[in-house]
Amino acid sequence: MLSTSGLMLSRIYAGVLMPQLAVGAAVGVVGVSLAASRLPAWSAAPLSVICLVGYTAGAVKLAADSGDVPGDVAALSRDALHNGIPRLLTAMIPIEPQPDTVVVPVLAIWIAGLAAAELAIRGRLMLVSYAPLIALLGGCLYVVGPNAGPDALLAGLYAGCAALGLAASTGTGETAQPGLARKERSGLRLRIAVGTAAGLAMILAAGAVLAPMVAARIAADPTDPRQYVTPPQLDSLDESPLARLSGWALDPDQHLFDARLSGGDRRLRLAVLSDYDGVTWRVSGNYRTAGRILSVPEPDGRAGGGAQRTVEQKITIDQLDGRLLPAATMPERIDGVRVAYDPDIATIALPDGLRPGLTYTVLSRPPTIEVNLLPTAGTPQDSATIRRFARLPGEVPADIERLANQIAEQAESPYLRALAIERFISEHYQLVADAPSGHAYPNLDFFLFAARNTGGQKGTSEQFAAAFAVLSRALGMPTRLAVGFEVSADQPAVRGANALAWPEVLFDGVGWVAFNPLPEPNSKPKPVEEDFVPKPDPPPPSPSTASTPPPSSAPPSVPAQGPAGASAGAGGSGIPPSVVAGGIVLVCLVGTYAGLLLALRARRRRRLWAGAPNARVVGAWDEVHDALRLAGRPPPASLSATEVSAHAATATGGPAHVLRPAVACVAPQVIADLADLVNLVVFGRASLTEAQADQAVAVATSYVAVLRARRPRWRRMLWAADPRPLWWTGPRRRRPATRATV
Fold first, then answer.
1. Which residues does 549 contact at the CB level (< 8 Å), separation at least 6?
2. Other CB atoms within 10 Å distance of the CB of residue 225
3. In whole angstroms, what is the distance from residue 156 CA to residue 640 CA?
4. 359-364 and 331-335 as β-strands: parallel, antiparallel, unpaired?
């Protein structure tokens, strides 16, 4: 029964070492207990513990030699005892037998065997001795979880061994008590029969109650204890390695590592990023402790849509830091280092971190893409794939969606759409090494659409790959990013200039296909404006248009005729011509001035109460600027919005003149809040709410009222009649930088 429990657990292990160690522990503990059965009872446990120490040391030595784990037996044993359980539960299935993955099962088998043997041999309590054995079996099955199917052969063997043990230990009441009289023996038999019947009835009742629940769980998957243990995690440096590309591009001669490859694939993968929140692409890996065997090749030699080829790599780390290990696609075996591996994205991590001089070898089998299937291949449409690989969070910039739809207009299949995106990006944008890092929506919007003379339409492979991925996802295609290195065929040294990112699209029946949106060397990019012009948003309806009354059906009124002498007087004998001309000029001037004042009021109304919330916030800020200029305190053009708010707070200082009761003092923090809203609109490209716009308008109107009330009387009288703001341009707002503020 001990051996059967060990074999149950060994189904999630690779190779034959774990079954051998489990059977050896079962045989060893039972043999020691049998040998010590004639010794004093107190000596059995110490003797068994001594044998356990020796057997455990031998198991550690065998596992270390098998897994090529360096270190002496004592140090490996201490580490295995300290970290055995978490490493067993975070190890990748199938588990490679190593010191920290075999010590815990060996100890469990030995301890359960010692307890069962002592109860059965010395105590002659065979049924009670099954308790530690059943607990061991339950623990083994719990660790296995859903990672192995049912095994009827081992289950039958376990039940047969249990029945055989009970049959071998059966005795009678007469042999147990030979000195009893016949009447007493009859009473004993009766009590045994009644007890047996009562026990059987309890078992049947429990079976009737528990059988439906057990039957309902037969088809369900067992609970996996690994979900309760956190596997090795990446730090912030490796969580988003896409952001490291700009640093490597600025230091192209930095020696990261040496790589010697045998095989046609010259590209090494460092990380795969599939999670995007609108600001950052992140690694979504679930890394599990692994041995040397990382993946098992398909029986027919196919994985991901094509026949496999072998790529051997020998890599020596120099200045590359972090925890991620570069390797060719689909690593199958790794030697020289103990790693964690995520089979879903086929990338490797080193829990202890990289160090200079670290050398390891990798055997990979990258799949060969079936190119003939691509033109007609579709993309997966199941909800899980769409949610993970094709979803774009938040509000996607409208120009990005328009560009994606325009590029895909003439493409008839997903593959042709991906090719069209790849061609558009490679033909219209320039690859530079000194572009700032960033791949949030504002960064990509600036990269795709800003004028080239302002820094737009140029970037590193970070922006090229991220722009492809966002445009592809905007069309509903499952897309992810990969970060890695291009290894030269004649130069093993891999430097910062060799780092790059590339997008991958998932196709049905083919797998993940890599695309290269980078431009050809020495090519001249086409201006984006020649092939794509962003459509402006429709202007909001004018309030004056909405309030214009419908034309009346009544006939127009005819002006009344004046006295006959009026027209005659104008002809010569009445008012002098100079007075008439002066009156006409005066009327024109007054009319023009009144028109300017009406235009000023209309512009103020459009700024503060018409349009979208973003436009209203900017209009409120323009009103504050105009008020400062009318007050004779114009802010310098070089000040930022935050600095202008500080300047505006000082402009209301000084002794206050007579204030209207409705005018209250505006705190400096309120003006600073208005500046923050303006920064969100201009630099953060945020979409504000109506409540925020109302708040900005209230702050601006209150501030203008306070500022006007603190001017001299004659300045206050001329304030509302000053038409100069109509000729003033709005405050100069600088273009947002390409680096996202997160």
1. none
2. 15
3. 80
4. antiparallel
Integer CA distances (angstroms), 641 to 607, 646, 675, 734, in order: 18, 9, 5, 10
pTM: 0.59
* 501, β-bridge pairs: 483
pLDDT at 413 over 70: yes
CB of 341 closer than 8 Å to CB of 348: yes
Is residue 563 in some structural domain?
no
Q: How confident is the model at residue 663, as a pLDDT?
A: 39
CB atoms within 10 A of CB 37: 13
Tens digits of per-residue pLDDT, 371-381? 899 999 999 98
Same domain, 155 and 266: no
Peptide bond into 712 cis (omega under 30): no
Q: Which residues make Cβ contacts (< 8 Å) with residue 304, sequence separation at least 6? A: 330, 367, 510, 511, 512
Please give the C-alpha separations between residue 627 and each of 577, 611, 624, 652, in angstroms, as whole numbers. Answer: 43, 21, 5, 11
CB 25 within 8 A of CB 6: yes
Do 476 and 495 belong to one domain?
A: yes
Do 414 and 523 sit in the same domain of this protein? yes
Residues 160 and 297 in one domain: no
Is 55:86 a contact under the CB 8 Å cutoff?
no
Same domain, 28 and 140: yes
13: Cα within 13 Å, side-chain hemisphere: 25
- The string over 95-124, giving b where at least 16 C-beta atoms fall within 10 Å of a residue's C-beta and e elsewhere, is bbbbbbbbbbbbbbbbbbbbbbbbbbbeee
**Pair type for strands 458-459 and 511-514:** unpaired
How many CB atoms within 10 Å of residue 274?
A: 20
Full residue range of the structural domain in which residue 602 is found: 587-726
Rg of the chain (C-alpha set): 41
* Nearest Cα to Cα of residue 252 among 316, 319, 315, 313: 319
User: What is the biggest distance separating any 2 CA atoms in the chain, rounded to whole angstroms?
Assistant: 164
- Determine the Cα–Cα distance for residues 558 and 694; give it in Å rounded to an integer: 46
- Tens digit of pLDDT for each residue in 177-209? 555 566 666 776 777 777 777 777 787 787 777
Give the DSSP letter string of 584-651. Answer: HHHHHHHHHHHHHHHHHHHHHHHHHHSS-HHHHHHHHHHHHHHHHHHTT-PPPTT--HHHHHHHHHHH
Of the pLDDT bands very low, low, confident and very high (cuts 50, 70, 90), residue 216 is: low
Q: For position 258, what pLDDT does the model report?
A: 96
Residue scoring higher pLDDT (445 or 264): 445
Q: State phi, psi for 290 to the nearest 5 degrees.
A: -130, 160
Quick one: tokens of 474? 């905007």
In whole angstroms, what is the distance from residue 295 CA to residue 328 CA? 13
pLDDT: which is higher, 613 or 669:
613
What phi and psi values does residue 256 have, to the nearest 5 degrees?
-85, -50
Angle at 719 between CA 713 and CA 720, to 5 degrees: 125
